[in-house]
Specification:
Number of strands: 4
Radius of gyration: 15 Å
Helix content: 40-55%
Shape: globular
Structural class: alpha+beta
Mean pLDDT: 78
Length: 80
């Protein structure tokens, strides 16, 4: 049980931290934005980098149906 719990806590803490950082972008003086789509998050504060420079916790955006609208976001997490 101890090993399983240890394996779950690491990814959970990373996800919790990332969600808290993402919520900062959606906060306004009146509360939080209602539109929290991948496209909105992409337009708020992103920069293009080469894939080999990605770090754990980076968000990767996708346009799955190639209509020039971001419709999916993935959390990068790589472990050896």
């Amino acid at each position: 049980m101890g090993i399983l719990l240890k394996e779950l806590i690491g990814p959970f803490l990373l996800l919790n931290y990332t969600i808290r950082q993402v919520l900062i972008f959606f906060k306004t003086e009146y509360g939080y934005r209602l539109d929290v789509s991948s496209e909105v998050l992409f337009k708020l504060n992103t920069k293009e980098i080469f894939f080999f420079r990605t770090k754990n916790g980076d968000l990767i955006f996708y346009d799955i149906d190639e209509d020039y609208i971001i419709d999916h976001v993935m959390l990068y997490d790589y472990t050896n």
